[in-house]
């Protein structure tokens, strides 16, 4: 009888919304506590289901199984659940804006820009817009797409903006890695070394929450510092071009336009 305290692996997998194969894989990686053995049959309880739910939520937040495995291995077995829960809570302040679903013909109006076939292909190929069933689309990162639409209204082509986004994502990933590594080597390392004390859990969460505006402010300040220098280089290049009598890049001279 399925009481919730004596689940076979098939029942556990069904309740967790995954396959038996995935459950076995998690167990083989040490992500699950051992089952309760009755004879040669292993039975699982609520603690196993809770662990699988935590693993699923962490994966949905972008955690790789290898990272979850290292976390479980690095903490005492009795505190592994607590550590995983703490990680999940720490992600809350950084949760991205929820994805947005709508009818495909509503997207141009939502963006406020016209969309031809080429623009559609560009967004779909970049993954910034995804097709769903029944003529609907999903925007995984609405804030990003809104920013892109604003840039299009300023006269910048969508294809170029996608290339800039990919370059930007690479640099931002390096920046976020630096901030996370700083947190990991300081606040988190001290917290784990002291045994994940309950009276400091909220303090750690507060640090993570405060880190977001701090990181954003530092990134924006650095950008503002670098932008004038980049614009100065651009203006110097334009001035040199004019002094040499050549048209600015992207424009034709009189002789070229008459050909």
TrEMBL record:
<dbReference type="InterPro" id="IPR009061">
    <property type="entry name" value="DNA-bd_dom_put_sf"/>
</dbReference>
<dbReference type="InterPro" id="IPR000551">
    <property type="entry name" value="MerR-type_HTH_dom"/>
</dbReference>
<feature type="domain" description="HTH merR-type">
    <location>
        <begin position="6"/>
        <end position="74"/>
    </location>
</feature>
<protein>
    <submittedName>
        <fullName>DNA-binding transcriptional MerR regulator</fullName>
    </submittedName>
</protein>
<keyword id="KW-0238">DNA-binding</keyword>
<dbReference type="Pfam" id="PF13411">
    <property type="entry name" value="MerR_1"/>
</dbReference>
<dbReference type="GO" id="GO:0003700">
    <property type="term" value="F:DNA-binding transcription factor activity"/>
</dbReference>
<dbReference type="InterPro" id="IPR047057">
    <property type="entry name" value="MerR_fam"/>
</dbReference>
<dbReference type="GO" id="GO:0003677">
    <property type="term" value="F:DNA binding"/>
</dbReference>
């Amino acid at each position: 009888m399925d009481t919730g305290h004596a689940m076979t692996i098939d029942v556990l997998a069904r309740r967790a919304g995954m396959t038996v194969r995935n459950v076995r894989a998690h167990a083989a990686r040490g992500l699950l506590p051992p089952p309760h053995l009755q004879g040669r049959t292993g039975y699982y309880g609520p603690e196993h289901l809770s662990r699988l739910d935590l693993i699923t939520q962490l994966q949905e937040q972008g955690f790789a199984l290898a990272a979850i495995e290292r976390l479980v291995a690095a903490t005492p077995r009795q505190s592994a659940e607590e550590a995983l829960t703490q990680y999940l809570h720490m992600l809350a302040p950084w949760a991205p804006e929820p994805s947005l679903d709508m009818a495909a013909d509503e997207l141009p109006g939502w963006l406020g820009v016209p969309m031809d076939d080429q623009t559609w292909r560009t967004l779909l190929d970049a993954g910034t817009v995804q097709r769903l069933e029944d003529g609907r689309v999903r925007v995984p990162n609405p804030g990003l797409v809104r920013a892109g639409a604003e840039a299009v209204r300023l006269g910048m082509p969508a294809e170029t903006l996608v290339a800039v986004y990919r370059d930007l994502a690479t640099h931002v990933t390096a920046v976020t890695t630096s901030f996370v590594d700083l947190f990991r080597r300081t606040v988190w390392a001290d917290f784990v070394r002291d045994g994940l004390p309950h009276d400091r859990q909220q303090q750690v969460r507060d640090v993570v929450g405060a880190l977001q505006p701090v990181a954003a402010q530092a990134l924006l300040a650095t950008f503002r510092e670098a932008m004038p220098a980049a614009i100065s280089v651009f203006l110097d290049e334009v001035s040199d071009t004019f002094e040499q009598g050549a048209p600015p890049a992207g424009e034709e001279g009189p002789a070229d336009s008459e050909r």
